Amino acid sequence: GAAKLVVVVAIFLLTFYVISQVFEIKMEANLGHIFARSALDAAARSTKPPRYKCGISKACPEKHFAFKMASGAANVVGPKICVEDNVLMSGVKNNVGRGINVALVNGKTGEPLDTKFFDMWGGDVAPFIEFLKSIQDGTIVLMGTYDDGATKLNEEARKLIAELGSTSITSLGFRDNWVFCGGKGIKTKSPFEQHIKNNKDTNKYEGWPEVVEMEGCIPQKQD
């Protein structure tokens, strides 16, 4: 009986030892997998490119406002205007329309002030002129065309936009694509302007040129 007891105890201890060794190996393997997975995830996060405001390609310096904008695509997709990671106008927001789309931003704080669109095909240019005249000094003005932004423009309207820093407004024509960022009281020509002419030989869409996009950093207005 004593011999059998010794054998049973020995078998029990051997079984316990084998099970513990197998369990320890599995635990080490699982921990190794977890640590390896964590290291890979950390490496992936470290190599992921940083995202800047409005999705622009690089960060803006201090005392500058990040912006990105795009004209409309034919008469199907409306323009988009983003300032300081705040989408001011877009088709998703349902506040864009045919003609010239305008967003106003406070030049000192970067806060949005107003958004409007003016139909330059079937509308009247007079409300647009009054709106342009009402813009206060120090206001950042962003504009983008959709469908057609030029048919109803007259000399007075073009002159008022030119005073905001635009150089292309004098030649903006039927169904041209155009984006512009300037300011009231700028007193210089704005570096932020893109213009593509409507040309049946080069148009990306039937009757309309390709979308024009622009991004940059707007200097904050200083007192």
TrEMBL record:
<keyword id="KW-0964">Secreted</keyword>
<dbReference type="InterPro" id="IPR039477">
    <property type="entry name" value="ILEI/PANDER_dom"/>
</dbReference>
<dbReference type="InterPro" id="IPR039475">
    <property type="entry name" value="ILEI_FAM3C"/>
</dbReference>
<dbReference type="GO" id="GO:0030246">
    <property type="term" value="F:carbohydrate binding"/>
</dbReference>
<comment type="similarity">
    <text>Belongs to the FAM3 family.</text>
</comment>
<keyword id="KW-0732">Signal</keyword>
<keyword id="KW-0430">Lectin</keyword>
<dbReference type="Pfam" id="PF15711">
    <property type="entry name" value="ILEI"/>
</dbReference>
<keyword id="KW-1015">Disulfide bond</keyword>
<dbReference type="InterPro" id="IPR039220">
    <property type="entry name" value="FAM3"/>
</dbReference>
<protein>
    <submittedName>
        <fullName>FAM3C protein</fullName>
    </submittedName>
</protein>
<dbReference type="GO" id="GO:0005576">
    <property type="term" value="C:extracellular region"/>
</dbReference>
<feature type="domain" description="ILEI/PANDER">
    <location>
        <begin position="98"/>
        <end position="185"/>
    </location>
</feature>
